[in-house]
Write a structure and sequence with these properties.
Blueprint lengths: L5 H12 L3 H20 L4 E3 L3 E8 L2 E4 L6 E4 L2 E8 L1 H7 L5
Antiparallel strand pairs: 1-2, 2-5, 3-4
Helix pairs in contact: 1-2
Protein name: Integration host factor subunit alpha
InterPro entries: Hist_DNA-bd, Histone-like_DNA-bd_CS, IHF-like_DNA-bd_dom_sf, IHF_alpha
Family: Belongs to the bacterial histone-like protein family.
């Protein structure tokens, strides 16, 4: 199993779409930047047939340092969560679309 990188995605765009390598990298960077800006502003990003990226807000809560056992507050924060589509779930579980 290998990791999908920006370079490998750009290479796939180059070979399958037919854009030049520079255009492929620019296209990929534009898509990723658009997604990042939407998530920064709190919007969800839905890619049909793939899944949805959402920003979830977590409130303040108590936590415990596992090393010392000292209780400490965990500050409110935002996290990005991904929910796969039914099609992606089926494909990753060996089923058909």
């Amino acid at each position: 199993m290998s990791t999908v990188t920006r370079a490998s995605l750009a290479e796939q765009i180059y070979t399958q779409v037919g854009l030049s390598r520079i255009e492929s990298v620019t296209f990929l960077e534009t898509v990723l930047e658009t997604m990042a800006k939407a998530l920064e502003s709190g919007e969800s990003v839905k890619i049909s047939g793939f899944g949805t990226f959402m920003v979830r807000r977590k409130g303040r809560r108590s936590g415990r340092n596992p090393k010392t056992g000292v209780e400490m507050p965990i500050l409110p924060r935002s996290v990005i969560v991904f929910r796969p589509s039914q099609i992606l779930r089926a494909r990753t579980n060996g089923g058909k679309e």
